[in-house]
Amino acid sequence: VYHTPTTFLAQAVCYFIAAVLCIPIHFEVILSQKEGKALPLKVVLNYFKSNLEGSQIFITSIIIMATGFSYTTVLPVLTNHIFPGQSQVFGIAMTFCAIGGIVATIVLPSILKHLSTVKMYYLSSILFGIALLGIIIH
Protein backbone atom coordinates (compact mmCIF):
# COMPACT_ATOMS: atom_id res chain seq x y z
CA VAL A 1 0.00 0.00 0.00
CA TYR A 2 2.81 2.41 0.92
CA HIS A 3 5.63 3.20 -1.46
CA THR A 4 8.22 3.73 1.25
CA PRO A 5 10.99 5.47 -0.73
CA THR A 6 8.48 8.00 -2.09
CA THR A 7 7.08 8.59 1.39
CA PHE A 8 10.51 9.24 2.86
CA LEU A 9 11.50 11.43 -0.08
CA ALA A 10 8.35 13.54 0.30
CA GLN A 11 8.96 13.94 4.02
CA ALA A 12 12.64 14.76 3.41
CA VAL A 13 11.59 17.52 0.99
CA CYS A 14 9.10 18.93 3.53
CA TYR A 15 11.77 18.77 6.23
CA PHE A 16 14.27 20.54 3.95
CA ILE A 17 11.76 23.33 3.25
CA ALA A 18 11.13 23.75 6.97
CA ALA A 19 14.88 23.80 7.68
CA VAL A 20 15.46 26.45 4.98
CA LEU A 21 12.82 28.61 6.63
CA CYS A 22 14.90 28.43 9.84
CA ILE A 23 18.11 29.72 8.25
CA PRO A 24 17.39 33.44 8.78
CA ILE A 25 17.00 32.90 12.53
CA HIS A 26 19.41 35.02 14.59
CA PHE A 27 19.36 34.95 18.36
CA GLU A 28 19.91 38.03 20.48
CA VAL A 29 19.75 38.42 24.22
CA ILE A 30 16.55 40.25 25.07
CA LEU A 31 15.82 41.52 28.53
CA SER A 32 12.70 40.03 29.99
CA GLN A 33 9.70 42.27 30.19
CA LYS A 34 7.52 42.57 33.24
CA GLU A 35 4.02 41.49 32.36
CA GLY A 36 1.00 42.33 34.40
CA LYS A 37 -1.77 39.84 34.91
CA ALA A 38 -2.93 38.94 31.43
CA LEU A 39 -4.57 36.04 29.73
CA PRO A 40 -2.07 33.29 28.86
CA LEU A 41 -2.85 33.56 25.14
CA LYS A 42 -2.20 37.30 25.20
CA VAL A 43 1.15 36.72 26.93
CA VAL A 44 2.13 34.19 24.25
CA LEU A 45 1.11 36.52 21.41
CA ASN A 46 3.05 39.39 22.99
CA TYR A 47 6.08 37.13 23.34
CA PHE A 48 5.93 36.13 19.67
CA LYS A 49 5.57 39.78 18.64
CA SER A 50 8.64 40.85 20.60
CA ASN A 51 10.74 37.71 19.94
CA LEU A 52 10.75 36.94 16.23
CA GLU A 53 13.15 34.01 16.68
CA GLY A 54 10.77 32.24 19.03
CA SER A 55 7.89 32.61 16.61
CA GLN A 56 10.04 31.33 13.72
CA ILE A 57 11.02 28.24 15.69
CA PHE A 58 7.38 27.66 16.65
CA ILE A 59 6.20 28.02 13.04
CA THR A 60 8.97 25.71 11.80
CA SER A 61 7.98 23.09 14.37
CA ILE A 62 4.35 23.37 13.30
CA ILE A 63 5.35 22.91 9.63
CA ILE A 64 7.44 19.85 10.47
CA MET A 65 4.66 18.30 12.56
CA ALA A 66 1.87 19.26 10.12
CA THR A 67 3.64 17.54 7.23
CA GLY A 68 3.66 14.31 9.22
CA PHE A 69 7.34 14.58 9.90
CA SER A 70 7.52 12.97 13.27
CA TYR A 71 9.39 9.84 14.17
CA THR A 72 6.17 8.41 15.58
CA THR A 73 4.56 8.59 12.13
CA VAL A 74 7.65 7.52 10.20
CA LEU A 75 8.60 4.62 12.47
CA PRO A 76 5.62 2.35 11.65
CA VAL A 77 6.23 2.73 7.90
CA LEU A 78 9.94 2.09 8.30
CA THR A 79 9.54 -1.00 10.49
CA ASN A 80 6.87 -2.41 8.18
CA HIS A 81 9.18 -1.87 5.20
CA ILE A 82 12.23 -3.49 6.81
CA PHE A 83 10.45 -6.12 8.95
CA PRO A 84 7.12 -6.88 7.22
CA GLY A 85 4.55 -8.62 9.39
CA GLN A 86 6.58 -8.33 12.60
CA SER A 87 4.65 -5.88 14.74
CA GLN A 88 6.75 -6.60 17.84
CA VAL A 89 9.69 -4.85 16.14
CA PHE A 90 7.69 -1.61 16.19
CA GLY A 91 7.28 -1.91 19.97
CA ILE A 92 10.99 -2.51 20.38
CA ALA A 93 11.78 0.47 18.14
CA MET A 94 9.47 2.73 20.19
CA THR A 95 11.19 1.50 23.36
CA PHE A 96 14.58 2.48 21.94
CA CYS A 97 13.18 5.88 20.91
CA ALA A 98 12.05 6.44 24.50
CA ILE A 99 15.44 5.35 25.84
CA GLY A 100 17.12 7.73 23.36
CA GLY A 101 14.94 10.57 24.64
CA ILE A 102 15.90 9.84 28.24
CA VAL A 103 19.61 9.62 27.38
CA ALA A 104 19.39 12.87 25.39
CA THR A 105 17.72 14.60 28.34
CA ILE A 106 20.59 13.53 30.59
CA VAL A 107 23.45 14.22 28.14
CA LEU A 108 22.22 17.39 26.40
CA PRO A 109 23.04 19.84 29.25
CA SER A 110 26.68 18.70 29.12
CA ILE A 111 26.81 19.11 25.35
CA LEU A 112 25.26 22.58 25.53
CA LYS A 113 28.16 23.70 27.75
CA HIS A 114 30.45 23.24 24.72
CA LEU A 115 28.07 24.11 21.85
CA SER A 116 25.67 27.00 21.58
CA THR A 117 21.97 26.24 21.44
CA VAL A 118 21.76 27.62 17.90
CA LYS A 119 24.60 25.39 16.65
CA MET A 120 23.02 22.39 18.37
CA TYR A 121 19.66 23.16 16.75
CA TYR A 122 21.17 23.29 13.27
CA LEU A 123 23.47 20.30 13.86
CA SER A 124 20.61 18.09 15.02
CA SER A 125 18.47 19.27 12.12
CA ILE A 126 21.21 18.50 9.58
CA LEU A 127 21.96 15.08 11.10
CA PHE A 128 18.27 14.20 11.07
CA GLY A 129 18.00 15.19 7.41
CA ILE A 130 21.08 13.10 6.54
CA ALA A 131 19.59 10.13 8.37
CA LEU A 132 16.41 10.52 6.30
CA LEU A 133 18.39 10.55 3.08
CA GLY A 134 20.23 7.44 4.27
CA ILE A 135 16.90 5.67 4.69
CA ILE A 136 15.85 6.67 1.16
CA ILE A 137 19.11 5.41 -0.33
CA HIS A 138 18.92 2.17 1.67
UniProtKB/TrEMBL annotation:
GO CC aspect terms: plasma membrane
Localization, UniProt: Cell membrane
Keyword Transcription among UniProt keywords: no
Regions that span the bilayer: 6-27, 57-78, 90-108, 120-137
SUPFAM superfamilies the UniProt entry points to: MFS general substrate transporter (SSF103473)
Keywords: Cell membrane, Membrane, Transmembrane, Transmembrane helix
Superkingdom of origin organism: Bacteria
Topology within the bilayer: Multi-pass membrane protein
Entries under InterPro entries matching the protein: MFS_trans_sf
Protein name: MFS transporter
